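Researcher: Next entry in the queue.
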Amino acid sequence: MQGHALNVAVAVSEEGVVDANSYRKKNEYFYQQYDLGVLDIYAWLEFCLEPLSRYSMTELEAFHHQFMIQKVEPIMLDKAQNCINRHKEKGDTVLVMTATNSFVTAPIAKKYGINQLLATEPEIKAGRYTGKVSGIPCFQSGKIDNLLPWLQKNGESLTGSTFYSDSHNDLPLLELVDNPVAVNADKILTKIAQKKGWEILNWR
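Model: Structure for this entry, 204 residues:
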């Protein structure tokens, strides 16, 4: 959940499938809780995953395709892309980690040229989303819970690792890597980064 979370509920609201005002208000409430560091991750996931259960994969892919074109691609950051390209040129493994579900984030990561993604996974049964979460949400310390098995499976380590984040919710992982970087950071993370001497960047 980076900044204002890219949320499938908002995506489908753009198509008139759900009540846009109601979903935006509730999404804003959850964002405020996230910003304060008190988000109930399971309540948020219940909210943003439930719409997935109403539609077929084909319908959802059509919604998301339009969302990418109309909302995501116009705000993609050149400085972020340049940073990704530099890491890839050095031979670094580039991985996106996000609390937002993989249905929403996988096409965005792919658009940036990133093939590795650890996101909160929506549950799928009989070829449809159930509206529930599968496994541990990739949020706060849950990022580490998802990352460590991934590192072992892929023969990777955190030696020389860099993690870019905009949120104090990511402090568990920021404190674990070798090179923590605050990017477009919230006020709490900015203060912590200044105190700890972490690199601070602005990509906007």
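Model: The first strand starts at residue 95 and ends at 101.
Researcher: Noted, moving on.
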